[in-house]
Protein: Ionotropic glutamate receptor C-terminal domain-containing protein
Amino acid sequence: MWEYMRNRDVFVNGNRDGVEMVLSKNYAYLMESTSLEFEVSQNCNLTQIGGVLGSKGYGIALQKKSEWTDRISRQILLYQKRGVIEMKKTKWWRSKGATCSGTGSAVKQQRFSLSLHNVAGLFIILGAGLLFGFGTVIIELFIRCRQLAKKENLSFWTELISELRFALNLNKVEDHHSRKKSMKQNGAMAPDPLQHSTQLLHNGNSSVMRRKN
Structure:
């Protein structure tokens, strides 16, 4: 950029000439950010491109060990805290006949707003990722069901339904593998622990009665 500027007659004598060049020609003007913000607020046909290129602060020169150093510093901080500086900026920057309503603001808003076409790639990538993940889960589920069906001598669809019920948390109490084992035994019911204990107790009583006889 500096080579282009140095080899061509693009320099101006001041900010006013630079603003006129921007308004009348295909010209971009590098300007101090505060002055640029003021010019943009006063003329809706101007706009700022990007942020600041560099940051330099303003200072008030005083003598060393001056009694005014702390006073001025405290007063500036107090103005910042109370919003006085922002109020003054609003008064002189935005309220001096600058409304920027109408065609100028509409053009700038249209120029810098993002449309659906600009962000369509994000949704395409997100949708492709979701489809790929869903397909991977389906393939893994089918492979697992086929392996378990061969191992437990069950049909593929029975195994698939059992896995889906377990994945959807429909089997809250019983283990789905124990349920499949009972299904493999053609509906044979597992013995009730309480009934089994009662039967053992009854057998024990019977044996004692036989010894008495």
